[in-house]
Design a protein that fits this description.
Family: Belongs to the MoeA family.
InterPro entries: MoaB/Mog-like_dom_sf, MoaB/Mog_dom, MoeA-like, MoeA_C_domain_IV, MoeA_C_domain_IV_sf, MoeA_linker/N, MoeA_linker/N_sf
CATH superfamily of the largest domain: MoaB/Mog-like domain
Radius of gyration: 31 Å
Cofactor: Mg(2+)
Number of domains: 4
Helix content: 10-25%
Pathway: Cofactor biosynthesis; molybdopterin biosynthesis
CATH class of the largest domain: Alpha Beta
Bound molecules: ligand LQZAQKY5, molybdate ion
Function: Catalyzes the insertion of molybdate into adenylated molybdopterin with the concomitant release of AMP.
């Protein structure tokens, strides 16, 4: 432990949020990819487009349980003038038969079964007299199909073999994986999960469930960072808490980078102006310590050490949460080759007014009032507003508001940019 050098005040590098994010993203090289079975691809990012291997649907098939017939034979049917067709085949799903149909002939067919080449319509069983029990040899059609092709699902109408089902850069979820399977694809090329090490620093930190001596507080930042990194697609290679001793932090950091091969190390605390800023003390020669025009989250450290991206976030819990959103999450997504690095933003009226720190972009944990589905409003998650120490208030947050640097006060009714967290 030694007194730290230059604080975030005079002489420090100053950046806007955009400038700092640009520096971060310019340091990112995506992690390697591998081809894996669909089940292992969930939550990972496509490294290459997925192309359909087969037509979807694979063949013309029936959308209904009923009868495959020739349109001209049944086009005049109605309840007053029923048309009787002769059943010459039975086609359950999975059948490969392709019966020919002469004039007045039809095949009984089930949903998903291949439509005979000779058929041009499917008549749902509801539009016939008596149902399947009475249809072993003939069926009485009571209603004409609406048009030729009725109730036939055409080969390739969803996607053609060779066409793109999904582009590179999107995350594979349940819907994507099922679409790939439906397209005859069972393995996809995805980025591996970035390896992340989380290091909380602070001699005041104690396990959250214990008894706290005077001066001690529950350690919570590592919980936030580990969960947030996992949600962003990372694997945690280590999650540790160290004291404000240089040697303790140095050992944890070196282990993460050299032994565990972390792609990204994120630390909390020890970056600002105090006398025991352990992250600054150990890493100031290797990464940049900067002042970013945001609140909370003003003191930030970032750089590359070996192959690892290193983020030194300020220790206050709300600062950690908002710095993660502003810089670490986009970097984690960029490491995975994700094409969209930002969460969607919506613009909502403020339900109440609050103050902001002019000259700094405010990142405010927020709640959304959804009582009126056509008129959502946003309010601070905590009564205390944007205090970076208001850790318990994070439990109420489902979003965060982003207020521009030139705004001093948000008034009720003002439109505010809101980023949903889930
Ligand atoms: N003279 C100045 N003092 C401070 C400045 C400044 O510019 N000049 N900046 C303030 C701002 S803004 C922030 S943010 C903090 C950041 O300081 P550090 O990154 O050095 O963080 P610490 O001092 O280590 O901790 C700050 C705060 O957060 C609590 N903390 C730390 N780690 C955890 C954890 N893992 N779990 C829960 N809580 C944690 C810690 O106890 C402190 O209360 O500096 C201001 N000061
Ligand atoms: O910038 Mo600090 O992060 O206000 O709390």
């Amino acid at each position: 432990m030694r007194p730290a050098s230059p604080p975030t005040g005079a002489g420090a590098i100053r950046r806007t949020v955009e400038e700092h994010l640009a520096v971060v993203l310019s340091a990112v090289t995506p992690v390697p990819s591998a081809t894996v079975p669909l089940g292992d691809a969930i939550g990972r990012t496509l490294a290459a487009p997925v192309l359909a291997r087969v037509d979807v649907p694979l063949f013309d098939n029936s959308a209904m349980d009923g009868y495959a017939a020739r349109h001209e034979d049944v086009a005049a049917a109605d309840a007053a003038h029923p048309v009787t067709v002769r059943i010459v085949a039975d086609i359950p799903a999975g059948s490969s038969v392709d019966p020919s149909l002469g004039a007045g002939e039809a095949a009984r067919i089930m949903t998903g079964a291949p439509v005979p080449t000779a058929a041009t319509v499917v008549i749902p069983v509801e539009d016939t007299h008596g149902g399947f029990a009475h249809s072993q040899t003939s069926a009485i059609v009571l209603a004409a199909p609406r048009s030729e092709g009725a109730h036939i699902r055409r080969r390739g109408e969803d996607v053609r073999a060779g066409a793109e089902v999904a582009p590179a850069g999107i995350v594979v979820g349940a819907l994507q994986a099922t679409a790939f399977a439906a397209s005859g694809v069972d393995r996809v090329d995805v980025r591996r999960r970035p390896r992340v090490a989380v290091i909380s620093t602070g001699s005041e930190l104690a396990p959250p469930g214990g008894v706290f001596a005077r001066g001690q507080i529950p350690e919570s930042n590592s919980i936030l960072l580990a969960a947030s990194c996992r949600e962003a697609g990372a694997d945690l290679v280590s999650v540790t808490t160290v004291t404000d001793e240089d040697a303790a932090f140095d050992a944890a950091f070196t282990h993460a980078v050299d032994d565990l091969g972390a792609d990204l190390v994120v630390t909390s605390g020890g970056v600002s102006a105090g006398a025991y800023e352990v992250v600054r003390s150990v890493l100031s020669d290797r990464i940049d310590f900067v002042s970013v025009a945001m609140q909370p989250g003003e003191p930030q450290a970032f750089g590359r050490v070996g192959d690892a991206l290193v983020f030194g976030l300020p220790g206050n819990p709300v600062s950690v949460a908002m710095s993660f959103e502003a810089f670490v999450r986009p970097a984690l997504l960029a490491l995975q080759g994700r094409s969209d690095l930002q969460r969607p933003t919506m613009r909502l009226p403020a339900a109440t007014g609050w103050r902001t720190r002019q000259g700094r972009r405010q990142f405010l944990p927020a709640r959304i009032d959804r009582a009126d589905p056509t008129g959502w409003t946003v309010r601070p998650a905590t009564a205390g507003g944007s205090g970076s120490h208001l850790a318990a208030g994070l439990a109420q947050a489902e979003a965060y508001a982003v207020v521009p640097e030139d705004v001093a006060t948000v008034s009720a009714g003002d439109l505010v940019d809101v980023v949903l967290l889930s």
